[in-house]
Amino acid sequence: MNRPSVSEVSSGTVLPELRVRVTRERLVRYAGASGDFNPIHWNERFARDVGLPNVIAHGMFTMAQGARLVGEWAGDPGAVIEYGVRFTRPVVVPDTEEGALVELTGKVTGVDEAGVARVTITARSEGQSVLGKAVARVRLAD
């Protein structure tokens, strides 16, 4: 995919939706890659003992899916020059083949004179927002 250009993008441009299935297996793989082996991400009994409804996805895994949404749209992950979120609610991952579904959307809320788009990202699981104030800045092609 080519990077979107300044002439193609304006405030209101909607990014293609990204739907991500999060399974327990995926969480274990992410734990291995990230080094975060906190049992709330793989042990249901432990998660419930500390007051969680079930095993939850790593916050950074969820955040990374927002970066993936924007990076894929930009056609170059290196075009994402800034990205930040607030974690509003965990993604609860049941022990099923389907796991949990995270649905991500994005919308350009402005383009500055330097050709940098501001993209607001929405991430939802079970109908509820799981990331707040999720905003990326993306350098567009000339």
TrEMBL record:
Pfam families: MaoC_dehydratas. Belongs to the enoyl-CoA hydratase/isomerase family. This is MaoC like domain-containing protein. Residues 14-108 form the MaoC-like domain. It comes from the Bacteria. InterPro entries: Fatty_acid_synthase, HotDog_dom_sf, MaoC-like_dom.
